[in-house]
Amino acid sequence: MSAKEIDFQQIFDEKIENEVRIEPKDWMPDAYRKTLIRQISQHAHSEIVGMLPEANWITRAPSLNRKKILLAKVQDEAGHGLYLYCAAETLGVSRIQTLNDLHSGKAKYSSIFNYPTLTWADIGIIGWLVDGAAILNQVPLCRASYGPYARAMVRVCKEESFHQRQGYESLVVLSKGSPEQKEMLQDAMNRWWWPTLMMFGPKDEESSNSDMSMKWRIKRFSNDELRQRFVDISIPQAEYLGLTIPDPDLKWNEETGHYEFGEIDWEEFWAVVKGNGKCNKQRVDARRNAHEEGAWVRDAATAYHEKRSKRENEQKQHKNA
Ligand code: BYC
């Protein structure tokens, strides 16, 4: 490192220490930039791919009101993806490069979206559990050291809170319904509980990025801490819905004040992360097709922009003449 770089490093370290946000034009270590691009782009892809399992139910929502709510929610997720792609761009990576990585299957996105949505109860469960897990993970990210990421998270979290509530509310209705509706709800719980716990990432001792991300104050809590918090919050909510948790090892520990829960199937987690989940191929194909089918919109927008710039330049030249 040159003397100049050592100075920059010191300024950077002091900012992190004093909770001063790092902004796009500030000097930052390459590894910090790289890990932010990695996490923010994965996060953006998760939002966009995450639209697919729910969009699958827009045409089949059981009432006009549920359809409106679901449409609004799925549209919010698109917005989250766009804020996050913009935040990644501030770090010097182009949108097309990021998207190409998703379409080629190189980029990761949250494992949870590689599971199918088989019944209407799955949609409520996604709102309650998946958005609930996302909130727990994302609220601390509102204090992430990188300004554009932290600011994007503030708005995202407000919307996630509505998503979580609409999901839980729809499940309360099902939980008071017919025996078939109750059975459908329990079946959804059985299929989504464990994949939701996997959303928080590998256990702490296997989390390769955590140490540095905590040091840089991108992450504030470890994967296991957030997972435990999620379990503690969700069990009473599940009990209110009359649900059984699909975990025979689950028990309350009076001494620690936390629930103890069974071992996650890490083989399944890594298989899904590596592209071998039930819907990985379907999800990436759907995104790639959507991108290809949207080419004419991008071409039209570019042509319009060029035409407008040309006209503006001509008008300027005319004025100056
Ligand atoms: N799935 O060292 P670790 C939403 C990877 S969308 C796949 O602990 P880190 C919603 C990890 O990337 C919200 N991969 O990593 C949308 C790493 O691989 P690389 C999604 C996972 O980054 C629509 C390796 O495993 N939320 O709410 O310190 C509808 C080792 O992990 C997963 C976010 O994206 C996983 N679950 O911690 C409804 C939050 N977990 O990159 C809802 C932002 C880990 O080294 N991200 N991996 O090759 C984060 O907070 C962190 O990146 C994580 C992982 C906690 C997820």
From TrEMBL:
MF terms (GO), sorted A to Z: phenylacetyl-CoA 1,2-epoxidase activity
Pfam families documented for this protein: PaaA_PaaC (PF05138)
Any coiled-coil regions, as ranges: none
Region annotated Disordered, chain positions: 289-321
GO biological process: phenylacetate catabolic process
Gene Ontology cellular component list: cytosol
Gene3D superfamilies, alphabetized: 1.20.1260.10
InterPro entries recorded: Aromatic_CoA_ox/epox, Ferritin-like, Ferritin-like_SF, PaaA, PaaA_PaaC
Composition skew (Basic and acidic residues), residue ranges: 304-321
Name this protein carries in UniProt: Phenylacetic acid degradation protein
Species per Swiss-Prot/TrEMBL record: Chishuiella changwenlii
Gene designation per UniProt: paaA
